[in-house]
Design brief:
468 residues; FAD/NAD(P)-binding domain; 7-stranded mixed sheet; 5-stranded parallel sheet; 15 helices; 18 strands; binds flavin-adenine dinucleotide
Amino acid sequence: MALYSQPQQLNVPKQTSHPVDFVIVGAGLTGLSCAIALRRVGHRVQVLDRSPTLHMTAGGARVPPNMSKILYHWGLEEEVRKISFKSRAIHLLLCESGEHLGKHHWDEEMLKEARGDFVAVYQRDLRKLLYDTAIAKGANVRLNTPVKSVDPDSRTVTLMSGEVIRADIIVGADGVNGVTRPLLTDEPHGQRGALNMYCTTIPKEKILEDDDLKFFYTQKPAAMYSWWGDGRIVLTYPIAKTHDIGMYVYGPWDGQESTWDKTVSARGMHEILSNCEIRLRKLGRLAEPPTCVNSREYADLEEWVHESGRLVLIGEAAHPLPAGAIHMGAMGVEDGAVLAKLFSHLRTDDQIGSFLWAFQDLRQPRCAAVSKKETGDIHFMTFPPGEMQQYRDNAMRAKRDAGIDALASTNEHEESPEWEEIKEMFAYDAEDEADNWWVEWGLLRERARGVDTGFHMDEIVVAHEVSN
Ligand SMILES: Cc1cc2nc3c(=O)[nH]c(=O)nc-3n(C[C@H](O)[C@H](O)[C@H](O)COP(=O)(O)OP(=O)(O)OC[C@H]3O[C@@H](n4cnc5c(N)ncnc54)[C@H](O)[C@@H]3O)c2cc1C
């Protein structure tokens, strides 16, 4: 059978000819995205989560273009717009003095090329959207269903209730503290990191009551703000249609550590802000009760696929990023999109292992590059006073005084390496990468196995155009 002999309709992905049963452990952003993606290509999906409800603490998250483009491709553009706010620039300042070091505009041309937007949302709104979509697409999402253990060899998942669920493929999307990660590493929990990150939001009406803080709404275009200091960072971004402000506050580990689902006392956050400029101290006082997550350091997992060839880890369970990283949600959504693209080609059970390892091959370099960049950015923003910090600040001041965007090059004929790197991360199209893998390697493997793929170059071109 010719794999691409039937032209597909726009936005209707290729359907598997061999639907199988996936069980996804974890209904966070990653697990739910994966459920949507797998349902779109015709597999049967069950998602299990221990949380009794979808309720989340009042935290926000940034959605970069490489993530929003996937959600748009899945038909969710209008829904994402309803729950998000689009920032058009970022301002860079110093924590202690409040000095404005510069700004950078997210250039429209870049966003057009990336085919996505840079927006911010309440985590809970995005999770609800993904949950509703997964259900609408036919996934069986079971909340209040804690998983006790997973046995990849027998392909079973045992619930705390004693119920045993059998699947063809088990997907571990249960984050860093789940039950699947320990099946692939002896050190699932990593080492405590030097920084704690407090995550909170501040309602718009409270900000408008303070003359020092009104600039969030009077300055145009609406922007994110990033304050840098000695071992500390404050990031703010407008979220949701309410235009509330999301805030991440990084500072030295202070003995307080919790998980994303529990709020803590704001004492530690106020302590970090205590030597910052007045506007930050005021924001801290107006903030909702924060969550506090340590920026733990994790060794890279060598394998994301269990030797049985029936369990794969995705999202934070496979490749944790520093808390509050820009791409934290994006990497999980990309994972789900890639996994489903590969499994849209499933015709027989004996392809399962090779598709899972292809997934690992595709995703590991991308996630490692993103992790390196995010970790490097945190280091750059938290330089202690000294030569490096002075060099950084003076370089920014020079651009600011020359009227040049902070990430722009001083040479008008080329782009700065920093901006090129960011553009590349935003332009990345996970689904295209999976299609490319299929055309370059998947079909060859099929032919090596004696399968009559019957493909022709023009059909491959059609497939690429349709999937875009
Ligand atoms: C409750 C919560 C609130 C968050 N709030 C924010 C925020 O405000 N801002 C921000 O930037 N990031 C937040 N994050 C982090 C961010 O959402 C994730 O890091 C990122 O989206 C990728 O997550 P993930 O889906 O891979 O893993 P996670 O978000 O960690 O999701 C893992 C899921 O697996 C479930 N799970 C774990 N163990 C089991 C088990 N044994 N049985 C069944 N289910 C299990 C968990 O309940 C959870 O829903 C939050 C995460 C959580 C879980």
